[in-house]
Amino acid sequence: MEGIIISLFSAVESGTIYALMALGVYLSFRILDFPDLTVDGSFVTGGAVAAISIVNGVPPVLATFYAAIAGFIAGVVTGILNTKGKINPLLSGILMMIALYSINLRIMGKPNVALLNDPTMFNQIEGFWASLGIDNFLNSILTDSGMDRLPGTWAILIIMVIITLIIKFITDYFLKTEVGLALRATGDNEKMIRSFSANTDILTIVGLGISNALVALSGAFIAQYGGFSDVNMGIGMIVIGLASVIIGEALFGTKTIARTTLAVIGGAIAYRIVLTFALKFKFLETGDAKLITAVIVILALVVPKIIANQKEAKRKRRKRAMLASGEGANNA
After folding, report:
1. What CA–CA distance (Å, rounded) separates 44 from 233?
2. Which residue from 186, 207, 306, 320 puts its CA 20 to 30 A from 225's CA?
3. Distance between CA atoms of 332 and 324, rounded to whole angstroms?
């Protein structure tokens, strides 16, 4: 039982970090209706820029900011390829993803960069957090409830929840501004927005830039969380992002923008929890994570449709029964 609680704690902790990536995928996939495969590359770009900056003595906070800027530039280039180069959205993302693989190798100078002996945002936060005594207070509550195995520190979870919520509220506010509304309208009906003399090319470029900035920011945090940046750490990230968006929407709904962005964050955490507990089965291995991700996405896509079809069939049966009873009453 205690092992399960510790695994749940770790899943929620990493889920809050990946939630930033999921928010980026939500902006491109749902708001702009743009299947942006740049994500697989820009996630690594964020980690690579943050890692190489930290190794070269840049303060971790500034290195994380540089990572977001690099991700923004990657998204802008994808947007330019699509809008100015008239390249298909899917192909634009694929081309940028392939280009970023070589660029990321150039940035790091080798396939991976370790951060084990360098200061990161998280170990700096942990150092400050330890002096506050909050861990002792929270762990004492768990000890009183009978738990022996306790989380090493609550610092990363609490700080990442705060950062993720701040970015969520900024995203909500941005999508309600004039530019944000135009961005949403561009994704819904680009031709109509263009007929109102709006520059949809600029909106698409800016939207993809912001989307990939969030993805790269998540990559920078993951690199510091794991203690290394690897050129292959972004493989399949777009599928994980889509899984988070779809699961979140299915579980928490999409009535408003604020609720949807919260659902995306919840979806990222739920995905990590499902993945963590799926790997607890003895016949599954760590290498099966991509297979599990694919199964989760398939279930998230298929199950809501099956439930909706069943509800529709039930509604039709009820309507037929009402009509039949009405006809019976009339005949009587």
Report:
1. 6
2. 207
3. 12
Query: Would you give the distance in Å from CA 299 to the centre of its chain?
Result: 18
Q: Which residue bears the tokens 């919520």?
A: 165
Contact by Cβ (8 Å): 252, 266: yes
Residues linked to residue 229 through DSSP beta bridges, in sequence order = 113
Q: State the Cα angle at 71 between 68 and 72, rounded to 5°.
A: 85
Q: Write out the two tokens for 35.
A: 């299947």
Tens digits of per-residue pLDDT, 1-38? 656 777 888 889 889 999 999 999 999 989 998 989 99
Q: Do the Cβ atoms of 27 and 179 come closer than 8 Å?
A: no
Measure the CA–CA gap between 33 and 252, rounded to whole angstroms: 21
| Pair of tokens at residue 237 | 């990230």
Residues 6+ apart with CB under 8 A from 234: 39, 40, 41, 42, 43, 44, 47, 219
Q: Please state, in angstroms and rounded to a whole number, the distance separating the CA atoms of residues 272 and 268.
A: 6
